Amino acid sequence: MLILIAGPYASGTNGDPELMAQNLRRLEEAAWPIFRAGHVPMIGEWVALPVLSSAGASGPTDPLAAEVMYPTAERLLQHCDAVLRLTGESRGADQDVAIARSRGIPVYYSIDEIPDASAEAPVPEDEPALESGGSFLPEPPLTPAAQALYDEDLADDGFVWNLSRLWAYQPETQQKLFDLMGDAIASSGLSKRQRGILVTAAASTLGDSYCSLAWGGKLAKFADDPAIPAAVLTGTDAGLTEQEAAMAAWARLVARDPNSTTPADVERLRAAGFDDAQIFAITAFVALRIAFSTVNDALGARPDGQFVATLPTEVREAVDYGRQPLG
């Protein structure tokens, strides 16, 4: 596993370089035991500090640090398999834990809790999904509404989506949810590309492979460039405008922990050119997408293999989380 070591770095140092260096050494003390157990240790400062230096910043107390330190850890966590949270007060480390939990990866509080990779691993069981249902639930009895859902899939795509087999339990609820999403975003004036950025940013933060792949494919077409969805899905946001990057950052905040947002976060959206009505519309749209993802993920919906095979390589490789495709 790639394990992020999280703990105090700048917290409680009042900007004292020696105290920060001591904290970094304490974080690094956990690196060898993790490596010895067969894993790869990672510390955010190992990446963030060289980035700051290359940007011409004077160090972790430079104003530019706010744009590098936390975002570096957030991006690293999209690739990490676990977090080791060391003791000590640290807002950044607490944020790392929150992201890890939102992605569903383990959080350890002691090196002794980390499994030894050299120990014999149990044979993994297959995903508990039925071939006919593509989720934890079997297909429900066919109703006229469910048949209409299937017929639409067959007409549009040539196969019935696993999501449709799941939502066949309540096709009317799915339609009402989609209608709400449309109503929420209709007055925002956002383009299809911008909507795709919101969905892929939120879905990747949730660890939702289904919507990440589906909307990653859509965004590749909207942007006419598969590198754009890959950048949003992995959190680098390369190729986005400043306004689009602000949208993506907000969607991730809402998906990760809506109680962590601040007036300053909203102000950044205003500075990016969004008015208050648009900010509300964006937030309502993302929240409804999260609701949809929550049902799909909780009930084990797996991406459709025949669809995933048609996606650009950049999109498929970016989605290395969540439930694996079926078929």
UniProtKB/TrEMBL annotation:
InterPro entries: AhpD-like (IPR029032). Coiled coil: none annotated. SUPFAM superfamilies: AhpD-like (SSF69118). It comes from the Bacteria. Signal peptide: none annotated. This is DUF4406 domain-containing protein. It comes from Gryllotalpicola daejeonensis.
